[in-house]
Specification:
Layout: H1 6-9, H2 11-25, E1 32-34, E2 42-43, E3 49-59, H3 71-88, E4 92-102, H4 108-122, E5 128-136, E6 142-152, E7 167-171, H5 176-186, H6 193-200, H7 205-213, E8 219-222, H8 227-238, E9 241-245, H9 253-262, H10 267-270, E10 279-283, H11 288-297, E11 302-309, E12 315-318, E13 324-327
């Protein structure tokens, strides 16, 4: 690792080091016309496609615990949370802008490790980094990503198109990231499957692209703040409601294990604040089987947890006795998280 410090290197030479690393470790993409080195980058959109653009940030002490992630893991996580957004709309990533806020004592090798993590996740899509910005901060690292993706015209999936009587599906096991964060905060372990789920924020972009390509879904969103809050976002945008069947909510063996240790209801993790980057999907019942087949191909489970209802913005839980209980859309909110 390059042990030189950023403050001793200077911005121009640091950018040269970053550009050199990206050039040596990126695949050639014919739609990238200009990358790092000019005042702006330039890309072309393939014929018959539309561009998707998303932006997300990671701030040390807000989005991740200090010393809980290596620089390489920071890069992978920052890439994945943006790839997840592009995937949730049916697209695939193409190019990224990366802005960093760095303190002077950070080592050049650590910065390169961030870019190694970013490229590790972008490379499977033949996507790369085409520019960005570097600024100084006093202490907490900032990683800000703007990701450009593409989707075939007519294939983009929105939040606002769920229909009454659609089934609600979720991929994987929501709540695992929250459980992993809880383990880290307890100082119990950093070597646990749940901690790894929190660290890497695994996206479902391939699966989402596959089901959108076949026009199987009516709406879709990734779980970036919590299952209930993100389901509420679909309900609000689509002017519908939702019923969740308690008996159908998937509980992973890892969540059940630590919930038993804590003496807590596992739904605390599953329905609360958790950035799992799993997918919430609504679709006609007739399309459910094909969606399950596609996810099975990728070895990812899909669970039928409920249905879309008529009453706008109202989410209810149907218990084992058939009784309905109104649920509030709890989830991560930056401006109330510390209240």
């Amino acid at each position: 690792m390059d042990d030189r410090k950023v403050k001793d290197l200077g911005e121009i030479e640091l950018v040269d080091e970053i550009k050199r690393y990206i050039d040596e470790n990126s695949k050639l993409n014919p739609h990238i016309i200009l990358g790092i080195g000019d005042d702006a980058a330039s890309v072309s959109i393939p014929e018959g496609y539309e561009m998707l653009i998303t932006c997300d940030s990671m701030v040390e002490g807000v989005h991740f615990l200090k010393d809980s992630l290596s620089s390489y893991e920071m890069g992978r996580r920052a890439a994945n949370i943006n790839i997840s957004d592009i995937g949730a709309m049916g697209g695939v990533p193409m190019a990224s802008l990366v802005s960093l806020g760095l303190y002077g004592d950070i080592k050049v090798g650590e910065i390169i490790e961030i870019y190694r993590g970013l490229l590790e996740e972008l490379r499977p899509f033949n996507a790369t980094i085409i520019g960005g910005n570097i600024t100084s901060v006093y202490e907490n690292i900032l990683i800000d990503i703007t990701l450009f993706g593409i989707a075939k015209k007519g294939n983009i999936v929105k939040r606002s198109t769920a229909h009454v009587d659609d089934v609600i599906l979720i991929s994987g096991y929501p709540g695992e990231s929250a459980a992993g964060l809880w383990l880290l905060k307890q100082g119990k372990t950093t070597d646990h499957p749940l901690v790894n789920r929190y660290k890497l924020a695994q996206h479902r972009a391939r699966e989402a692209h596959a089901i959108s390509r076949e026009h199987l879904v009516s709406s879709m969103i990734d779980i970036s703040d919590g299952l209930l809050l993100d389901l509420y976002r679909i309900c609000k945008s689509s002017k519908v409601g939702a019923e969740i069947f308690k008996r159908n909510i998937p509980i992973s063996s890892h969540i059940r294990e630590i919930s038993d240790e804590m003496g807590e209801d596992p739904l605390r993790f599953i329905l609360g604040k958790s950035d799992d980057y799993e997918l919430i999907i609504t679709c006609p019942e007739a399309n459910r089987g094909r969606i399950e087949e596609i996810f099975k191909h990728y070895s990812i489970p899909v669970h039928h947890i409920g249905q879309i209802t008529e009453k706008a913005c109202e989410i209810s839980m149907v218990d084992e006795n058939g009784e309905k209980h109104r649920l509030e859309p709890e989830g991560w909110n930056h401006f109330t998280a510390y209240n």
